[in-house]
Design brief:
Distance between the termini: 37 Å
Largest sheet: 4 strands, antiparallel
Helix content: 10-25%
Oligomer: single chain
Strand content: 25-35%
Length: 86
């Protein structure tokens, strides 16, 4: 499996193409925020976190790209980070 370059801007998103299986691409400077690329070419934002009540890894979908832009996904990520840090 090839190493995928982390996303740093809207422009870098277009370099990630559909593959045989879905995969996650990390977002630079935003831990636990990922772009999920599905085999049909759909790209969506995913926030992975550790549930404070069950101590299990969970996922929250933040929306489909390009409906939710890179900057908007980062804003939503920041809001979730603040909520979970309390």
């Amino acid at each position: 499996m090839e190493a995928r370059k982390p996303i740093s801007s809207d422009r870098s998103i277009s370099s990630h193409k559909a593959d045989d299986k879905e995969y996650l691409v990390s977002v630079r400077n935003h831990p636990m925020l990922y772009l999920m690329v599905r085999p049909n070419g759909t790209k969506s934002w995913v926030y992975r976190y550790l549930s404070p009540t069950h101590s299990k890894n969970k996922r929250i979908s933040l929306g489909v790209y390009p409906n939710v832009s890179f900057s908007r996904a980062c804003e939503i990520w920041r809001d979730y980070e603040e909520l979970l840090s309390c």
